[in-house]
Amino acid sequence: MAQDDWLADRFEEHRPHLRTVAYRMLGSANDAEDAVQEAWIRLSRSDSNAVENLGGWLTTVVARIALDMLRSRTSRREEPVSEVPAEPAHNGTSDTQPEEAIMIADALGPAMLLILETLSPAERIAFVLHDMFAVPFDEIGPIVGRSPAAARQLASRARHRVQGADAAGAVDRSRARRTVEAFLSASRDGDFGALLALLDPEVVLTADADAVRVGASQVRGSQAVAETFAGRARAARLALINGQPGLVWAPGGKAQVVFGFTVEEDKITAIQLLANSATLDDLDIVLMSK
To answer: How far apart are CA 87 and CA 23, in angstroms?
Structure first.
């Protein structure tokens, strides 16, 4: 058998598993198939003789591809998930066991898909790889660009959110994102009235010591907070901060100041400014559309 045919056969043996991994990460049958096909392309262009554990190597490759796809999604403006995509079909050669099929259905129901959409890309990858496929954190860390300890924290944070959230909570986060987007737009435009409409009368603006040193204020009340931000957030960008909607000042793509928001019933009740470098390094920040 020719080397290319042998490699293709080996890949097909792993395809059902790779499709399942990709689907759990991406929540889309089409995207999962695209990720698997890209993994095949990368395998065919690599030195497969140097790969000792082909299944593990392919799982890592699919995870990296999925991470890039998730980050690409969050860099674009997207509407909240409104329907659940079909689970990828399995052909007769699939080695998926009945117990695993049941777990797939349980893990990726409509509520779970909504909740996973609220996780940051790195959280989602770490959670899926570790909690669903038992991949160790020393292997997950390089995939998400973190230390094993940081990867463990990503998975733990995602796990707590998944365990404590429901579909309604996911919808609330989508509403919070729209509120933060409206705040950014009103601030850029200097629309004082629109800012007041978004702020709770008792809203509190706080800042850490580093943010205060670079000119941030700590004030209370919608009037004072609106005056602080009117016309002054032109350089800020929408971002996901630990999976939650917020704003970031990131000259050159590196976060310097993070704006965290607390939103209750479409009103902003608190804004927190963070500029301490150690604090920012511990945050999972994904920049979104400008």
So the answer is: 7
